[in-house]
Amino acid sequence: MKKTFMKIAAVACAACLGAFALAGCSSGSGSSSSSAADAQDASADISTLTVGFDNSYPPYGYIGDDGEYTGFDLDLAAAVAEQNGWELELMAIDWDAKDALLNQGTVNCIWNGFTMEGREDDYAFSDPYMLNEQVIVTKAGSGINADADLAGKVVITQIDSAALDVLEGDKADLAATFGRLDTVSDYNNAFLQLESGTVDAVACDLSIAAYQMAAKPDAYVQLPDALSSEHYAVGFKKGDEALAAKVTETLKQLYESGAVSEICAKYADQGLDESNWILK
Fold first, then answer.
1. Burial (CB count <10 Å: 0-12, 13-18, 19+), residue 104
2. What are the tens digits of pLDDT across the range 80-99?
3. Strand 56-57 relative to strand 61-63: parallel, antiparallel, unpaired?
């Protein structure tokens, strides 16, 4: 595995100080509003975009055959950074440590198939860019063809995932019928356990299911009823709304230029469907 280096994004302090000085020397609501806007604009003026991601989350972020980090979201991040003249720093993280790393400033954002529903109050989000669902996948020939067939079965999902949130929330009644609901650190491990027969089903993002089924089309079956529908967005620390807005603006520009279509096509054979892109 490639060694990951941590780099804290540089903030344009001079612009922030200038806005602060203007607020201190001026009176009247108009000047105060202008200073606040200037300060917010300055918060988007970074030199390095440091992206926190799960390196075992294909096709959005993973380690390629060449040992380098790759994936749909990482390519999007690279395109956004290039468009804005930022350096890009990719940091593979433990998913359950993402909030601490974001709040410490170790990473600028979480960009890795990150579901925004249920987290709106915890992050400053970009506009959503991809549709997604939470689904359940089983082994082909297992006899599990519907939710009712999961009664007494062992289902596994990722720690701190949207699928876990759904199964502990809106679909808690369904989860109560399981023999056991397990968690694991990454979905690659979850599907290895499914393939070996250690568990009976995996609850995961549609994108993960599509990737696994594209790789092994005869091995897995997706149950017909989705657990939930949702959206992917880029998550930033609360207070970084200006940076989130800048990334949203750039993603729209990349869509208009055709760059998004090119990146989608690169991962089409891994189950990624451009028709799920919604930010236009």
1. exposed
2. 999 999 999 999 999 889 99
3. antiparallel
